[in-house]
Amino acid sequence: MPSPGSRVQLERGLRLAGFALLAFCAWAITAAPTAPSRLVVRSPGRTGPGALGSLLRGWTRRAPAETLALEVASVPAAVERDWLAALAGAGTAVTWSGALLPTAMEVLPVSDPAGGISVLAAAPVGTRVQLADSLGILDSATVTRAGAAFRVAAHTGPLQIAAGAQVARAATWDSLAPRHAVVLGAAEWETRFVIAALEERGWIVDARLAVAPGIAVTQGRPFPFDTARQAVVVALDALAPGEAQAVARFASGGGGVVVGAAAARGLGRVAAGGVGAHLRAPEITFTAVAPRRALALDPILPRGDAVVLERQGPHVVLAARRAGAGRVVQTGYDETWRWRLAGPGDATDAHREWWAGVVAAAAYRSEMAVGPSRAAGDDRAPLAALVDALGPAQPGASRAAGGFDPRSLLPLAGSLLLLCLIAEWASRRLRGAA
Amino acid sequence: MSAAVPLVDTTIPALARVERTGQALLLAVLLRATMASAGVLVAALAMLAAFDVALGLPILIRLLALPLALVAAVAVGLRGWRDGRGARSREQVALWIEERVPALRYALATLADARLQRSAATLELERIVGEVSWTHAVRRAAAGALLAPGALLILSAAVLAALPGASVVRVMRPRPGDVLDAALPLRGRRSVLAPLVATVTPPAYTGRNAVTIEEPVSVAGIAGSEVAFEGRGSASRVRAQLGTDTILARTDGTRWQVRLRMPARALALRLADGTVERLVTIEPYPDSAPVVTLRTPARDSVFRNATGTIPLAADASDDLGLAETRFEYIISSGEMESFTFRTGALQPRVLHGERRAELEASLVLGALSLSPGDVIHIRAVAGDANTVTGPGRGASETRTIRIARRGEYDSVAVEALPSILGDTAALSQRMLIMLAEALERRRPHLARDTVVGASRDIAVDQARLRRRVADIVFMRVGGESSGEESEGDNDANRPTTPEQVLAAAESAASRNLGVPLDFAADESPVIAVNRPLLDAYNAMWEAGRWLEIGEPDDALPHMRAALAAIQRARQAERIYLRGRPPTQVVDLRDARLKGDRALAAASLRFPTAALGAERARLMARLAAAAGLARAAPADASDSLLLVRLDALGLYPAFAGAVGRAAATLRRGADATADILRARDALLGAPRHAGTLPDWGAAP
Amino acid sequence: MSAFVFATAQYESGDWDSAPLVPSNIIDTIARYTSIDTAPAGAIVPLGSPELFRYPFVYLTGHLPVRFSDAERANARRWVERGGFLFVDDHNHDVDGQFHKTVTEEFARTFGSMTRLPASHPLYCAFFTFEEGPPTTSHELNGWGDNLVHRYLDAVLVGGKIGVLYSNKDYSSEWNYHPQNKRFFAIDNTKFAVNLVVHALTR
């Protein structure tokens, strides 16, 4: 137990320390912070959206730091990136580091009157990507190779792809300008049911169905082909030589062409491939799992530059190739109307959906319509944008200390002050002093 | 010294007084328990009624509260009774008196002791007790005991009496719709549209009770039901519009009322009070038509002669109730281009709302003046009691009975009444199988002779059934019996093997059939037509052989095969009345483009409407309503109800999800999950692939 | 490429094969005027069987009452909804006849109400032009049956297109002859059949 004399000395010491701390607090509150020569900000993404922005606002009001090192868990928002780029442009050496998921998205309209968009997401293999719009989560997928693709019938507001903490956003547009589809064929069930499927889907169809020599049933204005008016030509029956040339010209001019076996024979090099020997259906009855297996085939012998879209066993039954500026899709299925009429379940819907997909794979899209919208909030490749704005990541750049702000010590000084006062008071009470 | 006598005699004045005191105390205990019980109950009611006045208790709480209050009251009563059970014991009563009257100096307790024996000392005790009165102490104690429960009861009753009677009734007899009786919402409410109660009264013919819905978002009912919307306040403030029709609101006392008849299609009812508007969807569902199933005859038939009686049987059922049933027939006579028809009804019955009915009648062919070639079409029909949108009528499948023309045998529909064959033969065969199986199970415990005897008994029945099948086969082809049974077992000419039966059947067919039937190339007509029955016959024959030698286990596979064949015969494809006409092959090369096409011309085709437009419109409206959900949930709810109304017929799952979202918003809760479900129901889930596509944008 | 097959419906009640020569006659007519790929022989298809879905065009006729079985009703409804074209002709040419009464009742039960086709309907100018609507039959002119000349055909429309076409005009009698006998007619009375088939194949 200390003697009363030493205790008094201790109390004086505590009192003095209290005064000193009080003086420091008063100074810290009134003193301006020294301009930092170097700032380190860690994980702005975890402090909530806009947190980095408010920090940047504060720093920018003061004298800017000589260097600014960011350690990030997610890519700063576009406005924050722009701000950092502006700081860098004003002379601050801005560097960043962090293990960020490279995530990007692209939104493509589908050439389908029913609407819908295709969302492509790029992320490392194994990443779980989640697609959402302003209402909520739409779908999710695990990336198995290079990226993931989503087909969305409709959405509300901008779309976003989230991969972990990383979010890419894309504003979208209402719809594509409607164009017509031309269907050429004989008066037979395949032509009739393909037209029905496309019209039910919402295509405005111009058609020519040959009934007898010199006599045809027509709808709209199928000829001449023009990409300003028509997006795709579907040729189901053998074409007259002049018609075949017109189709080839349409394709090279950017138009879409869908051809059946009979038409493909007349199109020569424009088609996605040659036509093999006719094959009877490998299965007799339509099944819900693989309904098109019950269709007869005219297998495609694809050209070297053709992309195979669908196979039935060893046979190529759907292939596509670029022909000039346009796209040609060739189908090797014969009598798909049988699927529509006799298929199980919602075969009519499935047939319509399939034909809509085939036509969409070929149909013309104007550049203006597909051009990405750069509306506010559009941030399709945030990591790439960060690298673009600030350069590549510099690991270790954030280790050095930054400038000194005495206000940061206020909580500690306050706590010590309180402790000193309590200790001094307790000591006095214990020795019986007032 | 006198003999020791236990002092239990109540004739002793002191003990008699204790006995009387005990009875008085018992009465007081009973009274206190009853009053406490009643007090708790009345207090609970008063409290609930007070809460109802202040807060407007929901019906669920009121429904639960009353039984809980009763339970609590009974528990309090029982507890009080249990606490006072000492009043039934003389010793306890005496002690209780001693506690309150010290002057007794334990004389009474000693006297009351059952073990005490009469002696001189007891007389002294009696004297001491006789000098003391405890009546006053007893009265005071009883009054004290009754004071608290009595006060509770009176106070609670007073509070209850002071509360609005409607609230008391709401607490004591909760019922849907009594929200209109609640006291609180009268103060400070913005509109006469809240609270709102809808009562749906189905049409009288349905016999169903009215249903009351509080704060309805949508009202469903049978088309033609009467729907009444009711609220508090003056009707002059209420404007009601159903679809495009304006409905007048009426005042009924302190309430307004809007009455309408459930329309044929779903409509929105807009109720407006100044700027406040409420939307309720009125959704009718139809009264289904009766379902009628004709049981007999089971198939179409051809009769050689127009004689005999055909039993008719059918079942009818309806979702609400049947009003009439009957069999209908049409008789077609004639040939080529000249036909006449007669119609008639059999066994018409008037019903009185039964849900199910069995129809039975007999069709006497002889009474119908039928000629060869005539065709009778028979079906059962039923009507329901729908007097509003009906009556709904249902009809069974139609069976045709044809009278064969002489010399014309192009029909292969030869079963007279196949269900009789199927039912009896299949049943008998099944019974024989069960008998054989039972014998097989018992076999290890039976002597060989017993097994053989029982097996032969089954064999006799199996043979009888086999002969019956043979008869049916013969009757089908020739109208005569096979002779296997009718000519007696000892007849030397009767067929004894399957081959002989087939030969006999073939012979009969050759004798009787004038034209070939539709049959496979390697089959005779008789075999083709009767294949399943002949299979059954063969299997029965084999089974009989094994049963004859006492081997039921070997017989069983054949017996089961026979049963399967009989079932195949029953389920055999329906046979058309006429054979196929000869195929005419056209020489297309000869005919191609030989016609004069001078008058033929190119023609125009007209486009078909797109199917998805309505879906897209609904999605856009859903999105717009979802956008409103945070800022104006009531408006969003109304918008969603209108979306639901338009989607009901087209996309029922979507309409259901939208309805739930509207109700959720009306409750003031977050409806995002419901809206997302609605979107998925309308558009289907998005498709995805874990990789980028090789071509184009589609996964 | 699939050839057009003229299919005749086989139903469980009535005399479905009352006009056996109509198919070959119509096939001959189609070949005679058009280049439509046509099967040389007709087919007979049970109305209640899955086979029905192999033939988008089916012809149904008879004199006797028509009562569909549940299977026939369900099958026919699904077939029509999927795009089948059912041409029904009353071989009795009699609106008081049992074929008419029962078949219209069955149609109402199976497909819903029928619509009267105006003379301006595209059916009447699909190949040959019939300005006054459906051509009159000799049976009508002779006053047989109900002694009426029926000016219109009725139809069940599915999405605005004909799913079931119903005629009281008795084309079944009119066209029920061997195709070789066309040469005896000054005017081919089967031309309207071309319109039926062309319309069905191109609508």
What does this structure look like?
The complex is a heterotrimer of chains A (434), B (699) and C (203). With 434 residues, chain A is α/β, with parallel strands linked by helices. Chain A is built from eleven helices and 22 strands. Chain A has helices at residues 4-30, 51-61, 78-89, 189-201, 241-252, 261-267, 337-342, 347-362, 367-370, 382-390, 410-430, and strands at 38-42, 67-71, 93-97, 104-109, 117-122, 128-132, 137-142, 147-152, 159-163, 166-170, 180-186, 204-212, 215-219, 230-235, 256-259, 273-275, 296-297, 300-302, 307-312, 315-323, 326-331, 333-334. In chain A, the strands form six sheets. Chain A has an eight-stranded mixed beta sheet, with helices on both faces. In chain A, strands 7-6-9-10 form a four-stranded antiparallel beta sheet, with no helix packed on it. A three-stranded parallel beta sheet of chain A has the order 1-2-3, with helices on one face. Mean pLDDT of chain A is 84; it is low at 367-373 and 398-402. By secondary structure, chain B is of the alpha+beta class. Chain B is 44% helix and 20% strand. Chain B has helices at residues 13-55, 59-83, 90-100, 107-112, 120-130, 135-162, 165-172, 418-442, 448-478, 498-512, 525-548, 552-571, 588-591, 613-628, 633-647, 652-666, 672-683, and strands at residues 196-201, 211-214, 218-222, 226-232, 238-242, 245-247, 250-252, 255-261, 267-273, 276-285, 291-296, 301-303, 309-335, 338-364, 375-384, 393-395, 399-403, 603-604, 687-689. In chain B, strands 11, 12, 13, 14, 15, 16 and 17 form a seven-stranded mixed beta sheet that branches. In chain B, strands 2-1-4-8-7 form a five-stranded antiparallel beta sheet, with no helix packed on it. A five-stranded mixed beta sheet of chain B has the order 3-10-9-5-6, with helices on one face. In chain B, strand 15 and strand 16 (393-395) form a beta hairpin. Residues 1-8, 409-424, 477-492, 508-526 and 572-579 of chain B have low confidence and may be disordered. In chain C, 59% of the residues are buried. Chain C is globular and about 45 Å long. The mean pLDDT of chain C is 91. Chain C is of the alpha/beta class. Chains A and B meet through strand 5, strand 7, strand 8, helix 4 and strand 12 of A and strand 18, helix 14, helix 17 and strand 19 of B. Strand 13 (215-219) of chain A pairs parallel with strand 18 of chain B, so a sheet runs across the interface.
